[in-house]
Design a protein that fits this description.
The complex is a heterodimer of chains A (about 190) and B (about 150).
Chain A lengths: L4 H13 L5 E6 L6 E6 L2 E7 L3 H12 L3 E3 L5 H11 L17 H10 L8 E2 H7 L6 H10 L11 E2 L12 H10 L2 H7 L3
Parallel strand pairs in A: 1-4, 5-6
Antiparallel strand pairs in A: 1-2, 2-3
Chain B lengths: L9 H40 L8 H20 L6 H5 L4 H5 L1 H4 L4 H12 L4 H8 L3 H20 L1
Classes of the chains: A alpha/beta (about 190), B mainly alpha (about 150).
Chain lengths: ~190, ~150
């Protein structure tokens, strides 16, 4: 005997509609692979590459609490905006973000990161200077590496001072794909030197 | 020191117990009404889940919630019928282990005693399983214990 998909769906919808879920999540398809997108009542809490149920559920519980439930409805807004972004119809996101429990330095770096425009790149050092710690490029790199809401918080737009892509938690291929999508790769390639 | 068992993310808890909960509810209520009861059971569990203080005996806990949801629905449908009989043929271990002692108690008292002493759940957890307050759960437990004591000493 199994729980029918319809019954399962109705429970998940009711749970999310009644506001009983700390963190709702779903798997979202994208041109750079499946994304696990999660949201709390405060906003989008995470976007992770290469979903892995064995680990992701505990990670989500650590962010928002034990009431973690897969519920497509709770990430409807994020899914729609991501779809539009990947189709080239959206250049900035209007989503609320859940940055709870992140250290103040991380939050200020992420706020500055959010202002890097679509289709442009900046460097770790420049971002560090923007938050008033010009020598903290390495610390900024760590914040980028741990960014739990990539794409929406565009750490793919941050590159090394020589123009190298440097690194990306989701892998350099994905970073290159996102920059290509935004037209930033061509601009970079044309740049002399 | 024993480490308290961590509370699993609800998704994992739900996936682990949903089939057994539905099976119990179907046995009690039939396929159709079991669906409403299924939803109600896991919504009640979800409401209480953030207040659990450990992750032990979650199976007994959710089956007790299901049991009570079923009883509530049966009562609403047939308010005059005697329902104790329906509850006593349930075979999950929570009731089996303390069955001799708790025989003859009302369903709430029996569930409270079993969850408290059979599974070491807190009154908060028992309350959420019974759909009552922690005070009422404490009350039901001590009434149950008093009755048992009276019976075995008389």
């Amino acid at each position: 005997m199994t729980v029918s998909p319809d019954l399962d769906r109705r429970f998940r919808e009711a749970a999310s509609t009644l506001g009983l879920v700390d963190i709702g999540f779903d798997i979202v398809d994208s041109p750079i692979g499946e994304l696990l997108v999660a949201a709390s009542d405060q906003g989008v809490a995470s976007i992770w590459f290469d979903p892995d149920p064995a680990e992701d559920l505990e990670r989500l519980a650590r962010i928002g609490g034990p009431r973690v439930l897969r519920s497509p409805r709770s990430v409807d807004d994020a899914r729609r905006e991501l779809d539009e972004y990947f189709e080239g119809r959206r250049r900035s996101f209007d989503l609320r973000l859940d940055l709870r429990a992140l250290p103040p330095f991380t939050v200020s770096v992420l706020h500055e990161l959010a202002r890097v425009p679509y289709g442009e790149t900046t460097t770790y050092g420049a971002l560090a200077a923007k938050v008033g710690h010009p020598r903290a490029a390495r610390a900024v790199g760590t914040v980028m590496n741990r960014n739990r809401i990539p794409i929406v918080l565009p750490c793919h737009r941050v590159v090394g001072s020589t123009g190298d892509l440097t690194g990306y938690a989701g892998g350099l291929d994905r970073k290159a794909t996102l920059l290509e999508l935004e037209g930033a790769m061509r601009a970079r390639a044309r740049r002399p030197g | 020191m024993m480490q308290a068992v961590a509370i699993p993310p609800f998704e994992r808890f739900y996936e682990e117990h949903r089939v057994e909960v539905l099976r119990l509810l179907r046995r009690r209520l039939g396929a159709q009404r079991a669906e409403d009861a299924f939803q109600e059971t896991f919504l009640r569990a979800l409401r209480a889940y953030g207040r659990l203080d450990h992750g032990e005996h979650l199976r007994a806990w959710v089956l007790t919630i299901a049991q009570n949801v079923a009883l509530d629905m049966l009562r609403r449908a047939r308010p005059t019928e005697e329902l104790v009989e329906a509850a006593s043929d349930d075979r999950h271990p929570a009731y089996a282990e303390l069955a001799d002692l708790t025989d003859g108690l009302g369903t709430k008292e029996r569930a409270a005693v079993v969850l408290r002493y059979g599974y070491d759940l807190s009154y908060e957890q028992i309350a959420s399983a019974l759909g009552s307050s922690p005070d009422a759960a404490r009350q039901a437990t001590s009434t149950g214990v008093r009755r048992i004591r009276r019976r075995i000493t008389s």
